[in-house]
Amino acid sequence: MRVWLSIVSAVALLSCSGEPSRRATEQKEPPVKQPVTAVSTAAPPDTRPVIVAFGDSLTDGYGVPPGQKYTDFLQKALDDAGLKYRVVNAGVSGDTTANALDRLPSVAALKPKLVVLEIGGNDGLRGLPVEQTRRNLEDIVKGLQVAGAKVVLWGMTLPKNYGAKYVHDFEQVFTGTGKKYGVTILPIAEFGRVDMQPDGIHPTGAGYQRVAPVVFKYLRKELGE
């Protein structure tokens, strides 16, 4: 009887001790996680040739909400015409020709196909010497041409109360620079009457919408498009 109990006990003990091992060997290996490939959401680089609008507050769009600058309307006109160019607004309110000359390297670094240059109004409004404005403007135009850009230059004028001689000499800075360097002049008179902000200097959004087609006409001719 004792021998039988010993055999039974040994079998039971072996059965209990073997169960965990059997379950362990039957357990499946955890699945191997595959590496997750990151998907780039960055936009592709814009390779369209660049048109830079280089100037002061009239280019910067002083006083109008986003999307209402003349450069915004100019970009739309290019897109609607199927012309693959990207407009870059390089306008800084308050800039004189001296300030713009300082910024010339950053504009040239964009390697623009064409530059619409609107600068000099603040020189005249501040009564700066005309010859100083002329030298700065010529240096800007020369620098842009050396950088390989065509230039469309806005002509400028001043209120009559600045005196007939000063206004005449000031206007000649732009026409003279255009002739000297073979630059297309965009006469400011071509804009006609545009809606203005209360300061009487800066157009409203509706005013800029009228300005853009005139600029577009001149740059399209210059680009041969």
CATH class: Alpha Beta
* Record field, number of beta strands: 5
Label the overall shape: elongated
Order of helices and strands: HEHHEHEHHEHEH
CATH architecture heading: 3-Layer(aba) Sandwich
End-to-end C-alpha gap:
113 Å
**The number of domains:** 1
Q: What is the arithmetic mean of pLDDT?
A: 87
The unreliable regions are: 1-26
Task: Sketch the major β-sheet.
Answer: 5 strands, parallel
Strand order of the largest sheet: 2-1-3-4-5
How many distinct helices? 8
Strand content: 5-15%
Output the CATH homologous superfamily. SGNH hydrolase
User: Which structural class do the helices and strands define?
Assistant: alpha/beta
Helix content: 40-55%
Which helices and strands appear, and what pairs or packs with what?
Blueprint (H helix, E strand, L loop, with lengths): L1 H25 L23 E6 L1 H4 L9 H11 L5 E6 L5 H12 L5 E5 L2 H5 L4 H17 L3 E5 L9 H18 L2 E3 L18 H19 L2
Parallel strand pairs: 1-2, 1-3, 3-4, 4-5
Helix pairs in contact: 3-8, 4-6, 6-7
Structure description:
It contains eight helices and five strands. With 225 residues, the protein is an alpha/beta fold. The protein has one domain: SGNH hydrolase (Rossmann fold, 3-Layer(aba) Sandwich). It starts with a helix and ends with a helix. The N terminus is likely disordered.
What is this structure, in a nutshell?
The chain is α/β, with parallel strands linked by helices and 225 residues long. The protein has eight helices and five strands; from the N terminus they run αβααβαβααβαβα.
